[in-house]
Specification:
two-stranded antiparallel sheet, 145 residues, 46% strand, single chain, mainly beta
Length: 145
């Protein structure tokens, strides 16, 4: 017989059941009767997929560390006729320099990556910026007119 460790709780006793969750609360009762935070079972996913047009010429920068990044301004259609401008950072080490070299203003692109909030200091004090850090960019074919 295999040795057991009394400090380890079997996974089956931690599996949440909707019937065990008290209504209106953020916890539920496990099969063993203990209270387990409900959010402990949620998977946190940070995935962004955008299709839009490049609104401005891409800007390439070299960081003091030697890393290179291309910054894009992507216009994504929102509900209705409004276009939502979103900043996209494409690090050459992740995406590849060849991928962003062929992209220009007005090109239709598909971007996938993660949403990141950066904090930095400027003359006005501490600031923050939310942007998409691309893990892949694909130039889309323009429909024939």
């Amino acid at each position: 017989m295999a040795p057991t460790n009394s400090r380890l709780t079997p996974l089956t006793t931690l599996t949440p059941r909707l019937a065990d969750r008290p209504p209106g609360t953020g916890v539920h009762r496990s099969e063993s009767g203990g209270r387990v935070p409900w959010l402990a079972y949620w998977h946190r996913v940070n995935v962004v997929v955008l299709a839009g047009t490049v609104a401005a010429d891409p800007v390439q920068r070299r960081m003091p560390s030697g890393d290179e990044v291309t910054e894009l301004r992507l216009s994504v259609p929102e509900a209705g006729r409004r276009l939502l401008p979103l900043p996209v950072a494409a690090w050459h080490a992740t995406v590849g320099a060849r991928t962003v070299d062929g992209i220009a203003k007005g090109d239709a692109v598909l971007v996938h990556g993660q949403l990141v909030r950066r904090f930095y200091r400027s003359g006005a004090g501490a600031r923050s910026m939310t942007e998409v850090v691309a893990t892949g960019i694909k130039k889309l074919e323009q429909p024939a007119a």
